[in-house]
């Protein structure tokens, strides 16, 4: 399904975080990502049961832009617990299927469910 800005808006709860064959945040990661109508986003991810030992949480926020033609989200991070996220826009391939948002990079796939 194509991704539109209006379909993206709101809150999404993290269901899975896969890095290759690994699940560094465990089988039940916790997280929330928000997209606002005025172009702001915020994401918080926390390890759940079975997470890799010492796995820190991740939090970042900033402006976002969606290229609807390519379904690529551009996260322009302005504050982050991971300094490397500040170095350049974070690009995410986006797909929405009903109440499921999938964000992916070359390395990771994150699955989110619309928060009600």
């Amino acid at each position: 399904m194509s991704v539109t800005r209006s379909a993206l808006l709101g809150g999404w709860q993290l269901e899975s975080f896969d890095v290759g064959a690994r699940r560094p945040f465990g089988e039940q990661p916790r997280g929330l990502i928000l997209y606002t109508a005025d172009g702001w986003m915020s994401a918080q991810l926390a390890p759940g049961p079975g997470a890799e030992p010492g796995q820190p949480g991740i939090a970042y926020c900033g402006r976002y832009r969606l290229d609807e033609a390519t379904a690529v989200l551009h996260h322009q991070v302005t504050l982050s617990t991971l300094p490397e996220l500040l170095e350049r826009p974070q690009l995410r391939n986006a797909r929405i299927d009903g109440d499921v948002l999938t964000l992916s990079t070359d390395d990771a796939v994150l699955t989110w469910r619309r928060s009600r």
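Helices lie at 5-8. The first helix runs from residue 5 to 8.
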